[in-house]
Write a structure and sequence with these properties.
One of its GO terms (molecular function) is protein kinase A binding. InterPro entries: GSKIP, GSKIP_dom, GSKIP_dom_sf. This is GSKIP protein. Belongs to the GSKIP family. With 140 residues, the protein is α+β, with helices and mostly antiparallel strands. It has a single domain, classed as Hypothetical protein (hspc210) (copper amine oxidase-like fold, 2-Layer Sandwich), CATH 3.30.2280.10. Helices cover 36% and strands 16% of the residues. It is elongated and about 55 Å long. The protein starts with 16 loop residues before the first helix and ends with a helix.
Length: 140
């Protein structure tokens, strides 16, 4: 299962993903829907990229989903999400290139960190802001 439960920015309460993720964690249900997982990945890091969304043209299944991402540097990628992790499958939206042999990343954070210095900066700043807010909370 992908690690997508940490977000330095507060998500609005009406996303609906919390309930779905809670359901999936019950022992023995073994419910895996990669589209749901992909939506959670997008929600976690959308604030730190120019554009990111689950592909509507490439097929999603229980074991695979595709995510389009455009970094702040304006580079476009199509990512494949499976139990193995995330990897680049094309250098444009809604494409796959079978000749492309890119490594899997366990998390969307490590993948984007390797692709986009601007992502790294925005994400790092968000974490610092969140830590400062927590520090102020604990002091009051």
């Amino acid at each position: 299962r992908m690690e997508t439960d940490y977000n330095p920015m507060e998500l609005p309460n009406n996303t609906g993903f919390e309930e779905d993720l809670d359901y999936r964690d019950f022992e023995g249900t073994d419910v895996k829907d990669m589209r749901l997982e992909a939506e959670a990945v997008v929600n976690d890091v959308l604030f730190a990229v120019s554009n990111m969304f689950v592909s509507k043209t490439l097929p999603c299944a229980e074991d695979v989903a595709y995510i389009n991402v455009e970094t702040r540097e304006r580079n476009r990628y199509c990512l494949e999400l499976t139990e193995a992790g995330l990897r680049i499958v094309a250098y444009d939206f809604d494409q796959t290139d079978d000749r492309l042999q890119t490594p899997y990343h366990e998390t969307v954070y490590s993948l984007l960190d390797s692709l986009s210095p601007a992502y790294r900066e925005v994400f790092g700043n968000a974490i610092l802001q969140r830590l400062e807010a927590l520090k102020k909370e604990s002091q009051s």
